[in-house]
Design a protein that fits this description.
Layout: H1 4-18, E1 23-25, E2 37-51, E3 54-66, H2 78-90, E4 93-96, E5 99-102, E6 104-111, E7 115-117, E8 120-122, E9 127-139, E10 155-156, E11 159-160
Length: 161
């Protein structure tokens, strides 16, 4: 069974192979420096019934990339988009628990608003968001009970047994 936390770990490991000095976060961004910084966020998880006991899960992610060494005003942000394209190519396939997953619907968008991350001002033009989906299929176990089991309780001297 593949867990979302294992997918996030696989993405972080894949980023660390190509950007060993980069900081990769999945909970919150606490420190940024002169090297690349990535924040892996889970946008949503949708579940659909495909056929009888089979379910399809679509997990949508938002990978925020901060690249402080890239000047977003030069060449109309072309260097930032080239950096994003390299990250997208790097993350086309990831390995999770021995299974190879392909990231689908990959797209990127540059944020233009300025915001603050824990006391540091980051200019939004150097902030790139890469969105992607991962599709997972699961089959329901045959040993599913039609109803809950019965629970018998007794109360004696104010205690439940």
């Amino acid at each position: 069974m593949i867990l979302l936390s294992n997918i996030v770990t696989a993405i972080a490991d894949r980023l660390k192979t190509s950007y060993p000095l980069a900081q990769v976060f999945s909970e919150q961004v606490s420190v940024t420096g002169e090297h690349e910084c990535f924040f892996i966020g889970i946008e949503q998880v949708k579940a659909d019934i495909v056929l009888f006991d089979r379910r399809k899960y679509v997990c949508s992610f938002d990978l925020t990339c901060l690249a402080p060494k890239i000047d977003p005003t030069e060449k109309n942000g072309l260097d930032l988009y080239c950096f994003g394209a390299k990250v997208m190519d790097l993350l086309e396939y990831i390995t999770v628990d021995g299974d190879v997953l392909r990231l689908q619907n990959r797209r990127m968008k540059r944020k233009n608003a300025e915001r603050r991350i824990q006391g540091m001002t980051m200019h939004g033009e150097s902030e790139l968001h890469i969105y992607f989906d991962i599709e997972l299929f699961a089959a329901q176990d045959d040993n599913v009970f039609e109803q809950m089991e019965r629970l018998d309780m007794e109360v004696a001297n104010g205690n439940i047994y």
